[in-house]
Amino acid sequence: MLPAITLRQMRFLVAVADELNFSRAAKVCSVTQPTLSTGLKELEDRLGVILAERTKRSVILTPAGAEIAARARAVLLSVREIEDLAARRAGSDVGDLRLGAIPTIGPFLVPRALPAIRKAFPDLRLLLREEMTEKLLEGLHDGHLDLILFALPFEATGIETMPLFDDGYHLAAMPGSLSKTPVKGSELDGTRLMLLERGHCLQRHALSAFPDRNIQQDDSFSATSLSTLISMVSEGVGITLLPDLAIDAGVLSGQKIDIAPLPDACPRRVVLAWRTTSSRADLFRKLGEILRETRTQIHRGPEHP
After folding, report:
1. Edge-to-edge strand order for the sheet containing 169-173?
2. Residue 33 — φ and ψ, nearest 5°?
3. Residue 259: which of 183, 196, 166, 195 has the closest Cα?
4. What is the reported pLDDT for 192?
5. In whole angstroms, what is the distance from residue 35 CA to residue 143 CA?
């Protein structure tokens, strides 16, 4: 009788599929490269197919290897959910929790929530990863992330979402160019905004803040981060929309910039999401309540640092 396929062998294959490099895959699995190579060879012998083509410079999965790796990933995800379920039944929220968040929400909300999370769940270790929305959803479906923090609207299947709060906007411009009075959407007709580069959900959301107005992106410049965007606005290069969460969390600290409220802008809806098959939904909802409460506790910093 041939030996059974082991979870260890499946982890080796998934790591090779992710890294396409035996050295990095071995590091991910916390084993030596010869151990990983031997384990993968044993799996190939057991299955009777070649899973990966290896050269001195690259690793390429065969069609069979790619399909088997995808199924192995699903098996490992199911095993992890069994372990999570057992931990929940034991009445303890312990171990690592991998939270993904978009860069325009995560750094402004999660660090503020950590003290409350640690107090409520002292045996839980929260690991934060920042990515764009598409990558977060991919990581959630693949099992690399346990839950994600992002903003709607966005189409996704196989996940459950918990609304946390609506995040509005302020108009931001160079010093001396704005009053503190609210700005109406009609006043922005024909405006071109400096925004984050395409791929950031905030770029899409900002353009849809006033769906009935002719507001476009200034294609002459796009930023990779809010800090870069703010610096360019402070130099008079253009104007932009900044989310209220970032402003309240102090993103304008040390910056010379004017902001004005936009009360009739369509806000983005911030949500927490996890796989519908996850056994830790109760824990995730409790974390969502902490994040929601944290948002209400974040105070507005000086508007004109």
Report:
1. 240-243, 169-173, 258-261
2. -65, -40
3. 183
4. 86
5. 24
- The tokens of 119 are what? 């107090």
Residues 56, 24: one domain? yes
- What's the confidence (pLDDT) of residue 2? 67
Assign 221 to helix, strand or coil: strand
Single residue among 85, 101, 120 that ends a domain in this structure:
85
Which DSSP state fits 187?
Answer: G
Domain that holds residue 147: 92-164+271-297
The reply to whether 78 and 148 lie within a common domain is no
In this structure, are 151 and 290 located in the same domain?
yes
Distances in Å between the Cα of 31 and the Cα atoms of 4, 5, 36, 50, 193 are 21, 18, 7, 22, 50
| Residues 77 and 103 occupy one common structural domain | no
Instruction: Tell whether 196 and 155 lie within a shared domain.
Output: no
The enclosing domain of 291 has a CATH number of: 3.40.190.10
Q: Running along the chain, 305 residues long, what does each successive block of 10 average in pLDDT? A: 85 92 91 92 92 84 93 88 71 79 94 95 91 92 92 85 94 85 85 82 83 80 85 88 93 89 92 91 95 86 41
Number of domains in the chain: 3
Query: Are residues 236 and 109 part of one domain?
Result: no
Whether residue 19 is contained in a domain is answered as yes
Answer whether the bond into residue 153 is a cis peptide, omega within 30°.
Answer: yes
Residues 6+ apart with CB under 8 A from 298: 108, 109, 112, 245, 248, 249
Q: Find out whether 208 and 192 touch, Cβ atoms under 8 Å.
A: no
Comparing C-alpha atoms, which of 140, 218, 208 is closest to residue 173? 218
Residues in CB range of 162: below 8 A, 6 or more apart: 271, 272, 273, 284, 285, 288
As given in the structure block, the two tokens for residue 96 are: 């690592």
Are 129 and 209 within one domain?
Answer: no
